[in-house]
Structure formats: structure tokens, C-alpha cells
Amino acid sequence: xxxxxxxxxxxxxxxxxxxxxxxxxxxxxxxxxxxxxxxxxxxxxxxxxxxxxxxxxxxxxxxxxxxxxxxxxxxxxxxxxxxxxxxxxxxxxxxxxxxxxxxxxxxxxxxxxxxxxxxxxxxxxxxxxxxxxxxxxxxxxxxxxxxxxxxxxxxxxxxxxxxxxxxx
Length: 168
Fold this sequence. Notes:
30% of the residues lie in helices and 30% in strands. It has 168 residues and is of the alpha+beta class.
């Protein structure tokens, strides 16, 4: 399992873009995790699934709300990672009004999630292999802090915790 001090997995995530710009075309665009995190401070949070109750009601809204404070604390970007495809993540970004604040990144094949060792098997609940709920502060591609939730919990991966860690 990934831990503080480790380099984040050199995988590719997918991001849906509705407008062209900065080298991105409309539609799904590959995000090379190593390149995208190089030289930046990233507040990454991962969750079991787009449009799910806790994720939609608490997790994403908290990061959208704390966006200005996280930026003021030195966070360059906020990433939300979920084992969903880029189209679902794009629709969820519109629903959550997170565009321009939180990058909604799809881990459709769970490559990033598997590489972190933070998988969650929800096969019995009809959702298959998903990501555990967690957050991490990444500095220049390395994990500076890691907050892993217990089963069914939402206590340590929230935006307020991440903000306190970014300010430390």
C-alpha cells in the first residue's frame, strides 16, 4: 500500500473536457499522473463512485467550497479520482459545479487505484472493484500526507483535514 514519502503511481487517468484549450481537445483526455504532478502541490481525494450519496453530498462539495482556501495554502490543483470513466466524471463535474476548481479524473480500469493498493471490493453490492475513500497531499509527485478512511467512514479525507495539512 502507498505510504507517506512514496512517489505516486506513474499511471494515466482520464479527464473529460467540454472546451478545447491548453492542448486538450473536447472529450476524454489522458492525464499522465507523473507529468501532471511534477513541480506541483496536489490535493488528491479518491472515493468509491461518482453520483454516490456521501461522495455527492459531502466529499466533492467540501473540496469545491474550500477551493480558494486550499489555493491560498499553496495547493496548485485539486484532483478527485474515482473508478469511473471520463464521461461519467465529466457529467458529475457539471452536476457538482466543480469545473475550474476540482479536476474530476476517471480511473476507468482502476490502474491508479490498484497501484496505490487502496482498492475496495464492492462486488457483492453490484459495483465491482472501486477505490477506497482517502485523501493525500502530493508535493512534486511524492505523498506528503495520506488519510485513509475506515469502512463506511467519512472522517479524515475531507477538505477541512486536507486544508489543515496544506497549511502545516
